Amino acid sequence: MTFETLFAASHVYIGNTIWYLVVFAILMLLVKHYAWGPVSDMMEKRRQKVIEDLDSAESNRKKAEILANEREAALKNSRQEATQILSDAKTNAQKIGSQIVADANNDAASIREKAEADAKKAKADAINDARREVADISVAIAEKIIAKNLSAEDQKDLVDQFIKGLND
């Protein structure tokens, strides 16, 4: 192998190498312009979206914590209100119960008083009826006994005195 053949063989290879380098450079420029730019833009957009999603997730987590705290406070308040309502209901029930018992006692007392008044009136009526009957019977007996011994005017005076004695 001579130097010329070696040079000629290496020249072909150098020419091909330069050609390949030029084609590779052109291809790299085309890839950079048509593929690498859009891919880089897409990657940048994706990176921005991930950052926004992380920020949004953090914001939502904070909002969720705030809402959970508000709900906890509302639940605590509603428990206190329920306890207060139950306490008020018990107090009102006791007051109403006491009032019902007092009203029932008052009603019973008035019924008792009315019954006693009715009993006294009935007793007075019975006594008056008994007096009249006794007076009638006494007069009838006295008439039979005295009719033989007294005159009509004496009988009248006797009956008047007897009736006067019953009224006193």
Automatic annotation (TrEMBL):
GO terms for cellular component: endomembrane system; plasma membrane; proton-transporting ATP synthase complex. This is ATP synthase subunit b. HAMAP family: ATP_synth_b_bprime. Belongs to the ATPase B chain family. InterPro entries: ATP_synth_b/b'su_bac/chlpt (IPR002146), ATP_synth_F0_bsu_bac (IPR005864), ATP_synthase_B_chain (IPR050059). It is a single-pass membrane protein. Residues 40-81 form a coiled coil. The chain crosses the membrane at residues 18-37. It comes from Lactobacillus amylolyticus DSM 11664. NCBIfam families: ATP_synt_b. The keyword Transport applies. GO terms for molecular function: hydrolase activity; proton-transporting ATP synthase activity, rotational mechanism; proton-transporting ATPase activity, rotational mechanism. Keywords: ATP synthesis, Cell membrane, CF(0), Coiled coil, Hydrogen ion transport, Hydrolase, Ion transport, Membrane, Transmembrane, Transmembrane helix, Transport. It is found in: Cell membrane; Endomembrane system. PANTHER family: ATP SYNTHASE SUBUNIT B, ATP SYNTHASE SUBUNIT B', CHLOROPLASTIC. It comes from the Bacteria. Component of the F(0) channel, it forms part of the peripheral stalk, linking F(1) to F(0). F(1)F(0) ATP synthase produces ATP from ADP in the presence of a proton or sodium gradient. F-type ATPases consist of two structural domains, F(1) containing the extramembraneous catalytic core and F(0) containing the membrane proton channel, linked together by a central stalk and a peripheral stalk. During catalysis, ATP synthesis in the catalytic domain of F(1) is coupled via a rotary mechanism of the central stalk subunits to proton translocation. F-type ATPases have 2 components, F(1) - the catalytic core - and F(0) - the membrane proton channel. F(1) has five subunits: alpha(3), beta(3), gamma(1), delta(1), epsilon(1). F(0) has three main subunits: a(1), b(2) and c(10-14). The alpha and beta chains form an alternating ring which encloses part of the gamma chain. F(1) is attached to F(0) by a central stalk formed by the gamma and epsilon chains, while a peripheral stalk is formed by the delta and b chains. The gene is atpF.
